[in-house]
Amino acid sequence: QKEVEQDPGPLSVPEGAIVSLNCTYSNSAFQYFMWYRQYSRKGPELLMYTYSSGNKEDGRFTAQVDKSSKYISLFIRDSQPSDSATYLCAMSEGLSGGSYIPTFGRGTSLIVHP
Amino acid sequence: NAGVTQTPKFQVLKTGQSMTLQCAQDMNHEYMSWYRQDPGMGLRLIHYSVGAGITDQGEVPNGYNVSRSTTEDFPLRLLSAAPSQTSVYFCASSKTENTEAFFGQGTRLTVV
């Protein structure tokens, strides 16, 4: 079993829908949690970065971390066709675990249709 | 702003050939890394460097070599290409290990 599990999808939603993307993990030492967005044939770009548990909001995007359940989520409100991409979660232990090297999920393909 | 530049964008190799994938960044970042991305596998770390002259192995280092003689450049060498190395390769850089990673556009490599 991989340390980070992420459903590859594809997830297809109509424009304007609320999208929920999720990852589960097994390593309780993970403290830093990230979401990357990757458009087709492009490199990933950082979307959200959170430390420990809680919520973080940035425009239409909200990242949520539940360390007790080892579960992280990314919510996209009022989804747009331009949000169509692959979303990768990533997490790392940080200084306390001796390494910031992130472990990536497989990525979820999101399609927002007009 | 150039950011992270990878060359070539596409490459086809025959089994047993060697080649170097180039990666350069102009942001004066200390930390650089190489990943491969395969369908259904996510990003897997091959090698990384925390500064010039310092490199270390990641999750899947076999068949690859790296060196870091300057802050800007971090080339990845395939010693003897195998079909299992067919993949998309991404180079990334960040100011430190714990800051935002900037990725290049990727190199699509096919080994026949």
What is the strand tally of chain B? 11
* Structural class label of chain A: mainly beta
Largest interface: A-B, 24 and 21 residues
Helical proportion of chain B, percent range: under 10%
What is the first-to-last residue Cα distance of chain A?
A: 37 Å
Q: How far apart are the termini of chain B?
A: 35 Å
What's the average pLDDT of chain B? 94
- The coarse overall form of chain A would be globular
| Main beta sheet of chain B | 7 strands, mixed
- The proportion of residues in beta strands of chain A is over 45%
Gross geometry of chain B: globular
Regarding quaternary structure, what we see is heterodimer
Name the helix and strand elements of chain A from N-terminus to C-terminus, one letter apiece: EEEEEEEEEEE
Order of helices and strands of chain B: EEEEEEEEEEE
SSE-based structural type of chain B: mainly beta
Structural Rg of chain A = 14 Å
Largest sheet of chain A: 6 strands, mixed
Based on CA atoms alone, the radius of gyration of chain B comes out at: 13 Å
Strand content of chain B: over 45%
Work out the number of β strands of chain A.
Answer: 11
Please supply descriptive tags for the structure shown above:
heterodimer, A: 114 residues, mainly beta, six-stranded mixed β-sheet, five-stranded antiparallel β-sheet, B: 112 residues, four-stranded antiparallel β-sheet, 11 strands, 0% helix, 52% strand
